[in-house]
Amino acid sequence: MIKNKHILIGVSGSIAAYKIPLLVRLLKKSGAEVKVVLTPSAKDFVTPVTLSTLSENPVYSDFVLNDEGEWSNHVDLALWADLILIAPASANTLAKMEQGICDNLLLAIYLSAKSPIAIAPAMDLDMYKHETTQQHLKKLSHRGHLIIPVNSGFLASGLEGEGRMAEPQEIYHFIESYFSENLPFNGLKALVTAGPTHEAIDPVRFIGNHSSGKMGIALAIALSEKGAEVTLVKGPMALDVYQLNHDYNINVIDVVSSDEMFIEVIKYWETSDIAIMAAAVADYKPKNIAQEKIKKLETDFTLALVKTKDILKSMGETKKLNQYLVGFALETENELANAKSKLNRKNLDAIVLNSMKDEGAGFGFDTNKVTIINKDTTKVNLPLLTKSETAKEIVNYISQQFFKK
Ligand SMILES: Cc1cc2nc3c(=O)[nH]c(=O)nc-3n(C[C@H](O)[C@H](O)[C@H](O)COP(=O)(O)O)c2cc1C
User: Fold this and answer.
1) What is the CATH number of the domain that holds 271?
2) What is the pLDDT of residues 266-292, one digit of tens each?
3) Number of structural domains, the chain?
4) In terms of residue numbers, what domain contains 305?
5) Ligand 1 pocket: which of 11, 38, 41, 150 to mutate (most atoms <8 Å of CB)?
6) Which entry of 123, 144, 208, 267 is 20 to 30 Å from 175 by CA?
7) Count of alpha carbons within 13 Å of 362, Cβ hemisphere only?
């Protein structure tokens, strides 16, 4: 959920600043983009070199960068952030935030912010308990800012009590749950299919196709990033899907044939809210599977084929009012007409059309160029994009349409 999120950490002058490098590392490990801003006083507690190395970005502190008048654009920095975290937040910085005082870069960024603000206070026991500090925290909380609770325990002053900044892991989990709770597909279940199917001819041969599974995997990730609980039913493919389980918590089901895909898809479809069927399922399979390897003959050989089960059609037939079903069409001629006809025949909510005629689009490529056609026949033409960007656009489109249903 944190992957690719832009997190700006504002560090103020507290001994707890020593915990920030560890937090930056945790966030970076999860794929977040991190920028750090230090108040002038914070530089006494943690070095810019440590933080710029770990965040892989310059560390900002001053309005003006050099004698040539180059300056840090506080507005750009504020707008860059998906979340601004002030940690540690000193009593001084809290008071200035509450009052709208703007005598350093961090405070200017705060006043320019459009993103949510999270605050992790860090103070000595008496400073934290002080009436003014408590009033400032209350007012900042009423302003809609998120206050990360302090811990109780041993304090740098030697005192014991409330005021310890939350540990890096606790702040990390706070941020993680913040992003997952605010995602549009939270609490929804999504089903995606990807890759080809292999229809066995004999123990060593099969009928397959060139689908790489890249588009389906990108869709599963895009849905997961929007908060959906995703099941991916995938045919045989060479792609490494380790990250799907590990980074995205996607439930990956491996199948080989169209019959196996049918069984798994129908099982999960019943409880799914959204389904995107991106797999290239075989239309025909051998009528009989030879038990032994078929021997080479001197004569020609004819293989009898029968139709496979139409997975998409079965889903369309059982679709409930609140379910949203998207199909894919890969066409080589009469693309629009064929895709619209498939959309109607299979009772889909939308269909994504790939044309084999577009350069860089279709099987195996890392890019794709698709048209999304809605059941009301309106369409959205997307430009040539990476499959990951295409997937995000498709999922954004679905999120607009799904909540209209
Ligand atoms: C060793 C040391 C530790 C400090 N720890 C804290 C602290 O945990 N919380 C706090 O509010 N102020 C603390 N201060 C005081 C702040 O550094 C001081 O108020 C400073 O002006 C804060 O500036 P800033 O908010 O612009 O970063 C500490 C000062 C020193 C010298």
Assistant:
1) 3.40.50.10300
2) 999 999 999 999 999 999 999 999 999
3) 2
4) 189-402
5) 41
6) 123
7) 12
